[in-house]
Design a protein that fits this description.
The chain has three helices and three strands; from the N terminus they run βββααα. It is of the alpha+beta class. The protein folds into two domains: about 45 residues, no CATH class; about 35 residues, no CATH class. The chain has a three-stranded antiparallel β-sheet, covered by helices on one side. Helix 2 runs antiparallel to helix 3. The longest helix is centred in the C-terminal third of the chain and has 18 residues. The termini are far apart.
Length: about 100
């Protein structure tokens, strides 16, 4: 049996907790399911909000990498995979 992660998309959000002010939640994977808290990210000099954004982008990064690895080597496929990867990286960096 293989474990699977909570379906994306995930998002980062601000919490009311002073020690863990950032969180990551799913946006609801199945019909009728609401957002589900996945992680709390501690505030600090190490960039808590940036870490939350990176964690939240994990499903998009995985999807882009799998599409690249499972596709063919055609130019059209590579262009789509490249754009998907650029979007996922921008999201991980908080630019989207």
């Amino acid at each position: 049996m293989t474990d699977t992660h909570t379906p994306g998309p995930w998002e980062h959000y601000e919490r009311v907790d002073r020690e863990y002010p950032y969180g990551v939640r799913s946006q609801g994977g199945k019909a009728g399911e609401g957002p589900c808290h996945l992680a709390s990210v501690r505030w600090g000099a190490m960039g808590g909000e940036a870490n939350a954004k990176l964690i939240a982008a994990a499903p998009a990064l995985l999807e882009a990498l799998e599409a690249f690895l499972n596709g063919d080597a055609s130019v059209s496929h590579m262009k789509v995979a490249y754009e998907d990867a650029r979007f996922a990286v921008a999201r991980a960096k908080g630019e989207k």
